[in-house]
Design brief:
With about 200 residues, the chain is an all-beta fold. Helices cover about 0% and strands about 55% of the residues.
């Protein structure tokens, strides 16, 4: 954990993990970083960063808690979650007029609450991105993956467009799949854009 004089908070594994990690009971650790409490850095940067050899952890980062980096005295807050492996984000993230950025070389699972009024929310996944629980967002929202995007729960965005980009690397392999009974919606303002190179299934 690092806290700079400028109020920047960073949590990271600064050396790549190359072999299985066991807990105090000798059981495999399934998450390289698990965040379940609350971190506040108004006007600053919150960064969760994990790098590990592929397949060591179920999730490189599992974000379940509260991350808050609201704008303070004209300094926009930034929340970034970066990992080589799979990422699960299902907590509460707040950055009024700021930015969220989730970037993973592996799969990304999303749900929870993302509040960035007058700001931007962006998630970039490797092989695929799934919405596995209800997702509520505020601000310009872009969800993209080099492979498929699967929507398995409701997604709603207030005060901003909602964009889904499957096959973001344009190699011809990427579908958009929306499960039956789920809803995509924008409120107040904002269009919904869906782009894929493969099959698109809308509920």
């Amino acid at each position: 954990v690092g806290i700079s004089p400028q109020g920047l908070i960073s949590i990271g594994i600064d050396k790549p993990v190359a072999q299985q990690v066991l807990d105090s009971n000798g059981q495999p650790v399934s998450e390289q970083i698990k965040q379940s409490g609350e971190i506040n850095a108004d006007g600053g940067l919150i960064s969760l960063d994990a790098q590990a050899a592929d397949g060591l952890f179920q999730y490189a980062i599992n974000q379940q808690g509260i991350l808050r980096a609201d704008t303070l005295e004209e300094h926009n807050g930034i929340i970034q979650i970066v990992a080589a492996g799979a990422v699960k984000s299902s907590g509460v993230l707040k950055a009024a007029q700021g930015e969220f950025h989730i970037s993973s070389g592996g799969a990304v699972e999303m749900g929870g609450t993302y509040e960035a009024p007058q700001g931007k929310i962006k998630a970039e996944a490797g092989p695929g991105l799934k919405i596995t629980s209800e997702m509520e967002a505020e601000g310009e929202t872009t969800l993209q993956a080099r492979g498929d995007i699967e929507v398995l729960a409701d997604v709603s965005v207030d005060s901003g467009p909602l964009t889904f980009l499957a096959d973001s690397d344009l190699n011809g392999l990427g579908s958009f799949l929306q499960a039956a009974g789920t809803t995509l919606a924008t409120t107040t303002l904002g269009d919904i854009l869906i782009s894929s190179s493969g099959q698109s299934t809308l509920a």
